[in-house]
Design goal:
Farnesyl Diphosphate Synthase, 2 domains, about 300 residues, single chain, 14 helices, about 70% helix
């Protein structure tokens, strides 16, 4: 394993408890490609948030964040053009992007998603929240599918759906943490309908947890619809890819289920999945992947009329 791949593996190990166990199910070559794409995604996210692998943030001015965003755009375009890059995360990205002929559109749309945070975007409607989810996660699902060899638009749409579901789960898990950082991703219309102002202060107030949780439940219901839609696409992935994706789907989905079971008290702390439960879910995902080979014998059900960027 060379230094760039080792750096990418370390980024995965440190930055994603939920995905790293599932990632081990990829075949060797694909696993290294996934690590390398993840390392770049993680690097870009951390650069905008002033974090180290999703850890504590350092304060950044708006001007500093915009400078960082422009640097990420320059380095990403250079990597895509095959120009020399030195940052290990960008070297990793360049390898994967050139190897799999990654269209420039998708990585740049990820950076556009991060720009929504830089610009302080607000989210009035569920559709606006979903557009944010696309920019920071749905497009990652598409890129992950591309490096698994997927080119069919219908399958890429299911990969998008899984990314949207992941991000909706993240939003529901991180309501308090995001509010403490001055961000509100829950739709403002839904919050007002529940009797809560769409402000960080209102979401941090424990007296509002019951009302806020009604909106969280709506977002979890929406996430479930996307998880179900993504499930159909597993049949069209290579088997080792299906193993990892099915496992990751079950692990992330469990976050939302645990939030729902705990109720409004879940807003007081960050929900996580215990390692023994995670191991069981990874095993269950393997069974789903095996069954998906049988499902190939039958016509896939049509996709529900859910919001889609693709």
């Amino acid at each position: 394993m060379d230094a760039v791949v080792a750096h990418s593996e370390a980024a995965m190990e440190k930055g994603s408890t939920s995905f790293r166990a599932a990632a081990r199910l990829f075949g060797h070559e694909l696993r290294e490609d996934v690590w390398q794409l993840y390392a770049w995604c993680r690097r870009c996210d951390d650069e905008i948030d002033g974090q180290d692998h999703g850890g504590a943030s350092i304060p950044l001015t708006d001007a500093a964040r915009r400078e960082r965003l422009e640097m990420l755009r320059r380095e990403t375009r250079a990597a895509l053009a095959g120009e020399p890059v030195t940052d290990p995360a960008f070297v990793a990205f360049q390898r994967v992007a050139l190897k799999h002929r990654m269209p420039e559109q998708w990585p740049l749309e990820l950076l556009d998603g991060f720009a929504m945070d830089v610009d302080g975007a607000t989210y009035e409607t569920t559709e606006e929240t979903l557009r944010y989810c696309w920019g920071v996660a749905g497009v990652v699902g598409v890129m992950m599918a591309l490096i698994m060899g997927v080119r069919d638009d219908a399958v890429l749409k299911r990969a998008q759906d899984l990314g949207l579901a992941f991000q909706l789960s993240n939003i529901c898990r991180d309501v308090r943490e995001d509010a403490e950082n001055g961000r509100v991703y829950l739709p403002a219309q839904a919050l007002r309908a529940a009797g809560v102002a769409a402000t960080p202060e209102a979401l941090r107030n424990p007296f509002n947890h019951d009302q806020v949780f009604t909106v969280v439940e709506e977002m979890l219901d929406l996430a479930e619809a996307y998880y179900r839609s993504a499930r159909v696409g597993i049949r069209d992935l290579p088997f080792r890819g299906a193993l990892a994706v099915a496992a990751a789907r079950d692990v992330y989905r469990e976050i939302g289920r645990r939030i729902r079971r705990k109720g409004p008290d879940a807003l007081a702390s960050r929900m996580s999945v215990p390692k023994p439960v995670m191991a069981a879910l990874v095993a269950r995902g393997a069974l789903v992947a095996v069954w998906s080979r049988v499902e190939r014998l039958f016509q896939a059900p049509p996709r529900r009329p859910l919001w889609s960027r693709l």
